[in-house]
Design goal:
The protein has 264 residues and is an alpha/beta fold. Helix content is 35%, strand content 12%. It has a 7-stranded mixed beta sheet, with helices on both faces. Strand 2 (21-25), helix 1 (36-46) and strand 3 form a beta-alpha-beta unit. Helix 1 (36-46) crosses helix 9 and helix 2 (72-86) crosses helix 4.
């Protein structure tokens, strides 16, 4: 079984003892170490601990021994999240509130969290989160996400050879992995979502986030959820796909989203 590490960046002083814990899920081509600075910025901005999990990556040129396909990446993230809500040994109780999580993800990481917190059981029943994780997760912020692979390949055909075929198999359609078709997962109806996209993103087009936002909004309306359950922001950040994570606007957007849970 792969080892999944979850380092936690904590602010020097937590300004609210009941503040939520944030978890940032990096995109699928990066090691968690590349996001240490981002985790520190989010911890300073929110006053909350921030955890960044490592998960196994699909190689650019896989061999029979190194090939890794979906849902392995998402299963690793699920293990990390499940650990966070079940870890009872010191120093866990003092480090974070395991009953209040706000999650964030970027690019391919957005697809991973959508597979976990929407109902992907028809294709990947092994990705069902434990009840404690569903109950603890209060909000999910996703930026520059990939949600519909067929739509992505229609816009960027070269992505099939770059990463899609290696991570999902070389298939005529990827509709089974289209999270804009997944229903709500039972037990996750309370979760609030923030969908962010920069108009300057050169790697993932706005249509991805627009489709996922509309899907989430339809699910929320059908379930009778409050109007603020699903939020979007298409204009605050005007930086490229990777650069947007280094902007003050990103930290502020995610920070304001986390702040909204301090009183809940």
């Amino acid at each position: 079984m792969a080892r999944v590490s979850v380092p936690i960046s904590a602010p020097r002083r937590n300004r609210n003892p009941l503040s939520p814990t944030s978890l940032y899920c990096p995109r699928a081509s990066e090691d968690k170490a590349e996001h240490a600075a981002l985790a520190a910025r989010l911890a300073r901005r929110t006053g909350c601990p921030v955890a960044v999990p490592n998960y196994r990556l699909t190689p650019r040129a896989p061999t029979p021994d190194s090939a890794l396909r979906h849902p392995a990446h998402a299963a690793d993230v699920l293990r990390a999240l499940s650990f966070l809500v079940s870890w009872a040994d010191p120093p866990a109780p003092a480090a974070y509130d395991r009953a209040r999580l706000v999650l964030a993800a970027h690019s391919c990481g957005a697809h991973i969290l959508a597979c976990l917190f929407l109902d992907s059981s028809a294709r990947t029943p092994e990705l069902a989160p434990p009840r404690a994780l569903l109950a603890a997760t209060r909000g999910i912020a996703l930026s520059e996400g990939i949600y519909d692979l067929d739509r992505l390949l229609a816009r960027f055909p070269a992505y099939r050879a770059w990463f899609v075929a290696n991570a999902f198999g070389d298939a005529p359609t990827y509709a089974p992995y289209d999270v804009t078709r997944y229903p709500l997962r039972a037990g996750a109806e309370h979760i609030r979502w923030l969908i962010v996209h920069s108009p300057a993103d050169e790697l993932v087009d706005m249509a991805q986030s627009e489709a996922f936002f509309e899907h989430l909004r339809a699910l929320a309306l059908a379930s009778g959820a409050h109007g603020d359950t699903v939020q979007k922001d298409w204009s605050t950040i005007t930086a490229a796909h990777n650069e947007m994570l280094r902007t003050a606007q990103y930290s502020d957007l995610v920070g304001s989203f986390v702040d909204s849970f301090h009183s809940h």
